[in-house]
Amino acid sequence: MQDNRVLCYSVRVEIPNEVGGPESIFYLIRTTSEAAAIDAVLEGLPANWRVADVNPAAIRTETVESLDLRSGIPRQI
Q: In the 3-class helix/strand/coil scheme, how is 37-71 assigned residue by residue?
């Protein structure tokens, strides 16, 4: 049986707000390591936003193609 999954990372980013606790947004990124995923996401964030969690995710090839996940480019989900 052929494995049709691609290693990606789910990255949760916390955004401070004026009302109370931080809000979260999520990015999905196709990279070879957790460190590379964090670096790619941080590159485009404002200074006061921070990476809260990073989790590996095995994504089906069809999903990677439909989301147009390109290596090293974060996709907000």
A: HHHHHHCCCCCCCEEEEEEEEEEEHHHHHHHCCCE
Q: Which distant-in-sequence residues (6+ apart) come within 8 Å of 6 by Cβ?
A: 30, 58, 59, 60, 61, 64, 69
Residues 6+ apart with CB under 8 A from 40: 29, 31, 72, 73, 74
Regions in the chain scoring below 70 on pLDDT: 1-2
| Neighbouring C-beta atoms of residue 63, cutoff 10 Å | 15
Amino acid at 57: A
Give the per-residue pLDDT at 2: 53
Q: What is the pTM of this model?
A: 0.84
